[in-house]
Backbone:
């Protein structure tokens, strides 16, 4: 059985149509690209017990976001470790292994959700699923570069376009599945009809002669409900957030699709070239910095070009991946309360879908453009324009608190969409950039090792975002508490301001609940939670601009001796 997976058994016969290979590559990338829709899971995973709101025993957002980060870390590490293996066994073996890991990761992660064991979610979706991501990501890239030596950028753009577009399918699918499996918790009634007590920051209500943990849904929380429901008091542990069953269904579906696609892979015979194609002359190659030589995988690590391109990829990814991991949550935070009838759960999910669409278009469009103007020039545009756009985002977000919030919402969406075309374009262009600099013979392995930059970015991006957002959120809460009447605070939360830390830890005090009892005219600070993050991302892109400008041809001493 295993013999059918090795590359010697999948060499294409003469006359094979090379256009039959991209659909298989795109299918696998569409499946693993669903990782970009992770933010759909953020809210239900932080409400597994409370369902309509976070309960004291629920996981916090920063702990849930790290599941996404772990998956990205293992993506890069597995791609690097599998570099030599891919060159030896071929794309079919690697693709089948990816299907087992990605589908199995969802299954194990679903078990962690059912048992409320966060470590199982990290191990399943994060580690095992991340290995599936890395193997599935690299399996078609070098194959397509060899099938399309005349259009390297377009070839890698086609494959990696699927990864960027995966969330376009996954976001509405995940939202639909979560909604279908969702079950609201038991409703006790409006807040003023239920006797509530507060102990250790937790809200409790007497039910059947015993105190039961409850969550309170206020007017500021309605926009974030998975399905519409009334304000009031709900019993913790009596509903279903719908996310565990969603994991099991998706895991089975992705396994089957990826397995079929992996068996569709073919590799070209040695020495094959497209009919009628001749390599570009030396002058044309020099203009676009395309080498005619090859550099071994291990030798590439001895060149400054490898590390400069590593920085280029790392900082480009860091600038976008943190936002991707919380895209749905960010949209609700910034515009949800200012425009509750516009920015509801459905709009936020559609925002994730649009990110995926522009990410996908950028991967194909920018990579194809790089065939015309060269890879280094395309990256120069990414970083120069990206700095400006990230500096504009806080300005757009600040407008959410003003009278023209709808216009600023449109501007915010347009700006982020343009950013994500370049984010996706960076991913799609880097394999061709590596082939230009190091040659095509070992580009699959070199690309795999370069993806360790994605692993680092998978930590840096979310770490920067959650840390900076957490600091901004606490500052906003402290500012609001200073404006709220202490008596109103005690009435609303059943405890005094001196217990603020415990109330925040138990998710009893939130920005939305404080704004509801603040004096008239108090500005909701939610729109500023991500401003410092955007400034930090602009700084990273400025550094990447310099690194890209320093990339030049590899010294002849590193070339493979023919």
Residues:
């Amino acid at each position: 059985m295993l013999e059918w997976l090795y590359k010697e058994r999948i060499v294409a016969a003469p006359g094979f149509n090379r256009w039959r290979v991209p659909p298989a590559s795109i299918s696998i990338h569409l499946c693993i690209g669903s990782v970009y829709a992770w933010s759909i899971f953020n809210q239900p995973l932080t409400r597994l017990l409370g369902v309509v709101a976070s309960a004291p025993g629920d996981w916090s957002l920063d702990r849930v976001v790290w599941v996404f980060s772990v998956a990205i870390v293992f993506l890069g590490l597995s791609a690097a470790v599998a570099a030599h293996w891919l060159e030896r066994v071929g794309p079919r073996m690697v693709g089948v292994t990816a299907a087992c890991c990605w589908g199995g990761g969802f299954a194990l992660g679903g078990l962690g959700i059912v048992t409320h064991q966060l470590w199982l979610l990290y191990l399943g979706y994060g580690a095992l699923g991340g290995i599936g991501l890395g193997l599935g990501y690299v399996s078609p890239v070098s194959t397509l570069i060899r099938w399309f030596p005349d259009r390297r950028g377009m070839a890698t753009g086609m494959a990696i376009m699927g990864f960027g577009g995966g969330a376009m399918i996954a976001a509405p699918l995940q939202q639909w599945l979560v909604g279908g499996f969702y079950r609201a918790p038991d409703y006790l009634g409006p807040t003023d009809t239920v006797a509530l007590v507060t102990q250790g920051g937790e809200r409790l209500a007497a039910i059947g002669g015993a105190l039961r943990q409850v969550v309170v849904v206020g007017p500021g929380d309605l926009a974030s409900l998975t399905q519409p429901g009334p304000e009031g008091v709900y019993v913790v542990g009596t509903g279903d957030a719908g996310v565990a069953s969603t994991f099991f269904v998706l895991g089975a579906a992705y396994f089957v699709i990826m397995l079929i696609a992996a068996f569709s892979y073919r590799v070209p015979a040695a020495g094959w070239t497209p009919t009628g194609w001749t390599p570009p002359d030396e002058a044309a190659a020099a203009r676009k910095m395309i080498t005619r030589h090859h550099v071994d995988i291990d030798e590439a690590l001895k060149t400054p070009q490898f590390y400069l391109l590593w920085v280029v990829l790392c900082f480009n990814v860091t600038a976008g991946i943190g936002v991707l991991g919380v895209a749905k949550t960010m949209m609700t935070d910034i515009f949800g309360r200012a425009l509750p009838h516009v920015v509801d759960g459905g709009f936020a999910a559609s925002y994730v879908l649009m990110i995926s669409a522009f990410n996908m278009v950028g991967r194909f469009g920018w990579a194809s453009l790089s065939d015309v103007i060269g890879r280094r020039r395309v990256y120069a545009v990414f970083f120069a324009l990206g700095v400006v756009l990230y500096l504009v985002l806080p300005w757009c977000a600040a407008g959410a608190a003003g009278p023209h919030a709808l216009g600023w919402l449109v501007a915010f969406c347009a700006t982020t969409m343009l950013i994500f075309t370049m984010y996706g374009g960076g991913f799609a262009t880097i394999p061709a950039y590596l082939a230009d600099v190091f040659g095509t013979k070992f580009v699959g392995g070199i690309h795999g090792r370069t993806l360790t930059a994605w692993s680092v970015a998978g930590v840096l991006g979310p770490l920067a975002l959650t840390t900076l957002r957490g600091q901004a959120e606490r500052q906003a809460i402290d500012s609001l508490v200073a404006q709220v009447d202490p008596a109103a605070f005690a009435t609303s939360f059943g405890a005094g301001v001196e217990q603020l830390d415990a109330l925040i830890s138990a998710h009893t005090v939130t920005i939305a609940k404080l704004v509801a009892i603040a004096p008239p005219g108090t500005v909701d600070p939610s729109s500023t939670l991500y401003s410092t993050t955007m400034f930090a991302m602009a700084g990273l892109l400025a550094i990447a601009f310099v690194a890209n400008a320093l990339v030049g041809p590899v010294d002849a001493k590193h070339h493979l001796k023919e």
Summary: The chain has a mean pLDDT of 87. The two ends are 36 Å apart (CA to CA).
